[in-house]
Specification:
Number of domains: 1
Number of helices: 12
Distance between the termini: 60 Å
Helix content: over 70%
Order of helices and strands: HHHHHHHHHHHH
Shape: flat
Number of strands: 0
């Protein structure tokens, strides 16, 4: 039997989806196994990101009480680990969040593979493998950076909106929009996914455009609204001017 025939089998595709996820996870954990990588200072940005979560669980709001030049998504995502850090210390907290980021990296590779699974196992291996080993992705995978979490919510949105045998329901499209909207709360670069996604839905499933855009607005606005109401001018200044 030819290799091409084997790669076209559904079982091969499922195996490839698992394999690329394990590859991404293994590569991220390999980086954390380097001396000083788990507890040491390996990047500048992870300190402010995790520090904003630590301050949040102590009652200090970004923008109102301290300057923060990013949307509040990463602050909210890391807040549960920051709460744990109150018990185990911030040194252990940053180590935990780095391991969680490695898990997210592996999940992203699986999600990328699942997104193209209808093209077969080879395409899954290419998509997931590139995400696991692409140099700029590798740079962001070893600690608490925005890109792994941005990618995760964008990929979840695309999977909900554009995959599945049956036509997606309005509720599923709304959830897809919410995931993409929250991705914008992590990093505004989500707009580069949102614009083409809305265009594709407008062409292929016009009846779902309103639900998708409603989800995007809700996913972005609801998490950010409390911070905006607390300090509207400071939030705009920190995210637009700084």
């Amino acid at each position: 039997m030819r290799l091409a025939d084997l790669l076209e089998r559904p079982s091969a595709t499922r195996l490839a989806i698992v394999a690329v996820g394990l590859l991404g996870l293994a590569f991220a954990l390999y980086q954390l196994a380097e001396p000083g990588a788990l507890y040491g200072v390996t990047e500048y940005d992870d300190g402010p990101y995790f520090g904003s979560s630590v301050l949040l669980v102590h009652g200090y709001l970004p923008y109102r009480d301290f300057a923060f030049s990013m949307p509040p998504g990463i602050t909210l995502l890391a807040a549960p680990i920051a709460a744990i850090a109150r018990l185990v210390g911030t040194r252990m907290g940053i180590a935990i969040v780095r391991v969680i980021t490695a898990v997210v990296v592996g999940a992203n590779c699986t999600l990328a593979g699942a997104l193209v699974r209808h093209r077969g196992a080879f395409t899954v291996l290419v998509a997931g493998g590139l995400l696991a080993l692409w140099p700029t992705a590798v740079w962001a995978d070893h600690t608490l950076m925005l890109e792994p979490y941005l990618s995760a919510f964008c990929l979840v949105s695309l999977l909900l909106a554009f995959t599945g045998a049956a036509e997606p329901t309005r509720r599923r499209i709304l959830a897809a929009g919410c995931a993409l909207g929250f991705a914008g709360d992590i990093k505004v670069w989500a707009i580069f996914v949102a614009v083409p996604a809305v265009v594709v839905i407008a062409i292929t499933a016009r009846q779902h455009v309103r639900a998708y855009m409603t989800g995007i607005v809700l996913g972005f606005a609801v998490p950010a609204l409390p911070f905006f109401l607390a300090a509207p001018q400071a939030m705009i200044h920190d995210n637009v001017v700084m």
